[in-house]
Specification:
2 copies of one chain form a homodimer. By secondary structure, chain A is α/β, with parallel strands linked by helices. The first copy, chain A, has 11 helices and 8 strands. An 8-stranded mixed sheet of chain A has the order 3-4-2-5-1-6-7-8, with helices on both faces. In chain A, strand 7, helix 9 and strand 8 form a beta-alpha-beta unit. The longest helix of chain A is centred in the last third of the chain and has 21 residues. Chain A starts with a helix and ends with a helix.
Chain lengths: ~280, ~280
């Protein structure tokens, strides 16, 4: 009886730990969206429920995930009526006061797109400019992001910009892993260090690196030597097969066995790191 | 006498047309900052006065231009006292009213950094988040950008984000060329098309493309076939020598003769396009 009870506790833990929240950041162009899409697929294949969030206005996670008409998905930031209804302020109207805690809990189920089992929310670009105030919009997106990280019972994979300013102090606690993607290049290393600093500022301790577009051992050494104090989850090799598949508009998910193998390792590292951290072990 | 007069007119025209304003955009990681820094150097070598503007929070134009302590340059967006003095609102204070036309004309000469003859302004990251309003900051940066494009007597080279939302309708008229950098990849092509649409919306007609990281003829064909209606200024080849120089922390400006030759062609194309458009010809 005792044995069964322990097993039940472990099963229960297992289902809790699968509510993993992964935020992916890094310099523009390093491959954040690629990693987000390949990991989303990996978690779906393993039987998890996945909510992918596109929070990088310069990316197109929907296209990477193979959504049939990615450009038809309306980003939350363009839903002016919704923003006004929830915050009390019309986007673009200057000097207005607005609710700091708008209701967002019904938004994911009403507005998430779905394809091949993956749910997707596209946050969109926060407008700005000299003539209007778009803070209400920012507040809604911020509240929505906090909700998605704190309340959703899914594996959440968040494709972010180079900055992690989106992640407020309270939200950061919900992130199981901030994964910074780095490529062989000094600017990419600098961005990684800046993200590391920002993470420390908001109290986000679980941070790790995935190297991408690695051509050879000397590039790998360059990256590890320049980030000596960071945990590496994996090194994705540069593979012309991936570029060729992309240019030919073929599915990139299965284009490169080399990359697929490395993604499997990264997936295992992520899952086992949370297992290791679990008090049930 | 008539001959002299014509020559004087042409000289006058020459000095006017050299006030060239170039805005560089494109997907993250395609090489906007590389192109901005190499073109800045090229114009300086040719004897022009150059003002470089870093308007991409994910870039480090100062480092690319060889500024000795790039991280010591304080971005305008972090000058809270200046922002409050000029707009009347403290950054982060919600619901405040602020001046929509703050004074900015003295800011470039007071706050631009200088190295090897190149003046540099770093705009910085516009903060945002759930608890504060940073619209005053955005207004100041917008006014400053308009001023830099409309009023400065220099070659202005603007390193931007993937979006061109910074460029208001009035400012766009001052841009002689919006150069979109593209690399062999579908997402990069998509971003280029999106920028092309945005440019049309704000009335910016002079738009051209520079391809970067081109490995072979089929990648070149992919890019030109996918952007059939656009003008190409040049095709920068992929050169491992540039990556190696960057990783070894050597000056990237002289690292690759292949790239230097192509930058010369792009420079010539830019200058001659404005010459061709000049009524003196």
């Amino acid at each position: 009886m005792l044995g069964t009870s322990i097993r039940e506790t472990q099963l229960c833990y297992a289902s809790i730990r699968f509510l993993m929240k992964i935020a992916i950041s890094g310099k523009g162009g390093v491959g954040k969206t690629l990693l987000a899409s390949l990991l989303s697929r990996k978690f779906i294949e393993a039987g998890y429920s996945v909510l992918a969030i596109d929070a990088d206005p310069d990316a197109n996670l929907a296209a990477n995930l193979g959504f049939p008409e990615p450009d038809n998905i309306i980003p939350i930031s363009e839903m002016d009526d919704l923003i006004e209804e929830r915050t009390g302020a019309r986007p673009g109207k200057s000097g207005s006061f607005f609710k700091l805690n708008p209701r967002v809990d019904d938004i994911p189920d009403r507005f998430a797109a779905e394809h091949d089992g993956i749910k997707l929310m596209v946050m969109g670009r926060i407008k700005r400019g000299g003539t209007g105030c778009y803070c209400a919009e920012g507040v809604l997106l911020q509240a929505l992001l906090s909700h998605l990280l704190l309340q959703r019972d899914e594996v959440v994979i968040l494709d972010m910009e180079a900055g992690i300013e989106h992640l407020a102090r309270g939200t950061a606690k919900a992130v199981d892993y901030l994964v910074v993607v780095v490529e062989p290049g000094r600017r990419s290393i600098e961005t990684t260090r800046r993200i590391q600093e920002l993470a420390k500022d908001i109290g986000l301790e679980k941070i790790a690196v995935v190297a991408n577009k690695v051509h050879n051992q000397s590039e790998k050494d360059f990256i590890t030597n320049n980030l000596p104090d960071m945990t590496f989850l994996g090194f994705i090799p540069y593979d012309q097969a991936l570029i060729d598949a992309d240019l030919a508009n073929l599915d990139i998910q299965g284009a490169s066995q080399l990359i697929a193998d490395e993604i499997s390792k990264i997936y295992e590292a992520l899952v086992s790191s949370v297992e290791t951290a679990s008090p049930a072990k």
